[in-house]
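User: Predict the structure for this protein chain, please.
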Amino acid sequence: MIIGAGGTGMPIIQYLSKRGHILTVIEKDEKRCKYVSDHSDAAIFQGNGTDPEIWKSVEADKMDALIMLTNDDETNMKACEIAKKRFGIPFVITRIREPENKAKSKEVGADIIICPAEEIRGLFLNALEGPTEETLCEYTAEKFKVLMVIVPPDGVLIGKSIDQLGNLDNCRISAVLRNGAFVFPTESFVFKGEDRVVLMGSIEAVEKVAEELRSVIIT
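Assistant: Here is the predicted structure, written as structure tokens:
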């Protein structure tokens, strides 16, 4: 079941429909309902995604998954709660516009929470950081980050081993990509220029180690 058939919802509906999934869509806008009907193979119900009568009509207790895609966080969170507590839908994905609503969404039953604002923030920061660093994953609530750093050709750590790095408390080097392959490095692993080093741990510790890995020899 998908609630919300706007700019994000419609491509998802079409994608799943083309792959033979049985879809039920709830959308309050009449024109969007007609568009969904004309461009996908889905059962369409016009109305509010938090209306208990609509949930009964669509036989929500038989649904395998729910995707919440309205533009209103309160509506999305209320629907998550209905899905889990009233109808026992096993897998619930929701979009949240405000990052501060992620914790509440989890409490009311969302299994996967997607916050476009955080995703866009990550893309812009990666672009700003340039080709030498890329954030692969970041969970702000848990203060956890996975970052890939490229050791520069004139880096100060070239020829040095992991055990010569600074403080690695709350940070681990999980992998190093080199010459089209990857290794799980030990403390004796020696860095070379252009190594792509994957760090994981607390945001503060990861960023501190990344700065050390990016450091270059000043001539």
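The first strand starts at residue 2 and ends at 3.
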